[in-house]
Amino acid sequence: MAPPYSQDLRDRVIAAVEGGLSRRQAAELFRIGASTAVTWLKQLKSTGSAAAKAMGGDRRSRLTGERDWLLARVGEAPDLTLEEIRAELEARGIVVGYGTVWRFFAGEGFSFKKNRARQRTRPTRRGPQARSLAPTATAS
Questions:
Q1: Which of 38, 100, 101, 110 could bridge 105 with an S-S bond, Cβ 3.0-4.6 Å?
Q2: How far apart are CA 18 and CA 12, in angstroms?
């Protein structure tokens, strides 16, 4: 995502509109989109400020409070899938996405990949590879 426009530019666009230019003329003068100028002035009128809104968001996991329960649950049943864990969380009233659960366990150092004990066995009916039907050259 691109960074927000500077407050200086915002102030100059607003001053130009208050000085008599239309929003579209001010946008053209300062080489910004007309909708951007309209949005800034609408924001100024409704909130009293045309300052950029904060970027980013809360980067803390919503599962931090459930850490002990999650680790205990995986300790009890290590073969649970992330979707099963997510469904159990939903039953407890915590609605999160698959990625949230995955990131939590990745941060805790867990891996849900197959290991030797859980790998599939080979199909019993598959024998050695069939011989080629192409004639082989014989040395003469």
A1: 110
A2: 10
As a whole number of angstroms, the distance between CA 83 and CA 87 comes to 6
Pull the structure tokens for residue 80: 């649970």
8 A C-beta contact, residue 82 and residue 118:
no
Enclosing domain of residue 86: 64-112
Q: One-letter amino acid identity for 45?
A: K
pLDDT, greater one: 92 or 115: 92
Burial class (CB in 10 A: 0-12, 13-18, 19+), 30: middle
Q: Print burial letters for 44-68: b (CB count within 10 Å at least 16), e (below 16).
A: beeeeebeeeeeeeeeeeebeebee
Flag whether 85 is in a domain: yes
What is the model's pLDDT at position 37?
96
pLDDT in tens, 45-71: 999 999 998 888 767 788 988 999 999
42 lies in the same domain as 11 = yes
- For range 15-38, the mean pLDDT: 96
Cα–Cα distance for residue pair 73/84, rounded to 1 Å: 11
